[in-house]
Amino acid sequence: MCEKIENIDLVAQRKLLKDRGICVVIPTFNNVGTIIDVVNRSKKQCDDVIVVSDGANDGTLDKLKEIDSIEVVILDKNRGKGTALKYGFKKALEKGFSYAITIDADGQHFPEDIPNLLNANIEQPGAIIIGERKDLDKMERSAGSKFANKFSNFWFFVQTGRKLKDTQTGFRLYPLMKLKGLSLLTSRYEAELELLVFASWHGVKIFSTPVNVYYPPKAERVSHFRPAFDFTRISILNTVLCILALLYAVPLKMFRFFIKLGITMYGMSFFILSSLFVLTPIVMCIATFGKDKKKEQQIRLILHWFARFIMVWHGVPQVKFRSFNPTKESFETPAIIICNHQSHLDILALMSQMENVVFMTNNWVWNSPLFGYVIRKAGYILATNGVESAEQQIKSHLENGVNVVIFPEGTRSKDCSIMRFHSGAFHLAKSLNVDVISAILYGAGKVLPKNVNMIQSGVIELHFDARIKIDKSKTMRKVASEMRNYYQNRYSEISNRVERNV
Questions:
Q1: CA 489, CA 197: separation in Å to the nearest integer?
Q2: How many C-beta neighbours within 10 Å does residue 386 have?
Q3: pTM value?
Q4: Residue 246: burial class (beta carbons within 10 Å; 0-12, 13-18, 19+)
Q5: Is 188:80 a contact under the CB 8 Å cutoff?
Q6: 4: which DSSP letter?
Q7: First-to-last C-alpha distance (Å) of the chain
Q8: Pairwise CA distance, residues 475 & 477, whole Å
Q9: CB 464: neighbour CB atoms within 10 A?
Q10: What secondary structure letter does DSSP report for 220?
Q11: pLDDT confidence band for 189 (50 / 70 / 90)
Q12: Mean pLDDT, the chain, integer
């Protein structure tokens, strides 16, 4: 994932929001007393603010004219919050944004909590993020407001099977291209619940993150909620949604599950069968009858074409694989290639782009009954005792024109973040006087997450950067730390771009 923001200044935060395609949408109807403060505080957090004036007639528009560099969408008459949100989302899409953070105009939300939603978006790109109001039960609210939230939470669970503690909060982050049923939304408050229900039905992930909330004294509150009329209308709507859940959502969920299960079983079966009955017999023939000096090289070439078939020609089902090599690196001059570690697909992705390469592998890969024999015959290197202990074997490979791939993290993180780099690979590059090529991998850990056995749809990108020489004047621990920082920045650049469209 892109690295979470911690203690960054507002300039960097605003840039990150822009890079990820995130704007703020504020629907308002007659909030003249609070709108200026809400907009100005939002602008401090995010450069791109869209205000939807839902037929305001209390001077709100005059106030908004005092603020520079905001987009104002004007509705000629009051059409309700649901309609205002639709117009705000439409304008955000027109301006090229991928996500919209919605904030109520009455002052109850703290725009200063936008970083919480941004961090959640970094952790869960493509998901709806709910700003769950903290200590809500301790706040002085009307009985109707308390009941409305519990009422909404209950119906959301009935209609989706998911539990959320605060389905009524208006502080949210929406992935605009994943919003379903916009044309079906009703016009008023219940539209926000509908958005969650429709999104859940279509497999959009929904997560909560804590945010602060402020309720002004009763005399200062502006509310457009009509208890008797609105509860009646919402009850009718929820009855319709429950019927749709049985007739549409449940069958759709079952269909999606079996499709994903089928894709996973097909993908795994294809890989296993082709490995056992195609790759392994070919390698056994080469190992038995091939010329000694050419065996390993021939096996590595077979592995390259096998990986290329899996990743590029046949493809992992529902996964887009893209490789970038802007410097047109040929890999003919051997080097140590370092790469961040994400999933079991990492080796296949790298191998598909290079013919003459070996990997440092762990015990699990080395002893695998599926492909352990093949990688041992290809000259791969067991990393059990650390990189330095394999120096002579690595040196021999490099002298014979073979590139060596090392994962400096040593293991993979559950959330795809870049972990601490060990210095062994850089000690070797310095000692053996060879270049280092950085390979930055994105998405493999999202397609095949750690401890998850189902293939997820997504994008895998592999970027090769220009080769570099190790600065021998620095300690290798310092070099490793600097390289990790470099990877974090590059990974953030890639994830910010890709996750605008997930």
A1: 36
A2: 12
A3: 0.85
A4: exposed
A5: yes
A6: P
A7: 13
A8: 5
A9: 22
A10: G
A11: low
A12: 89
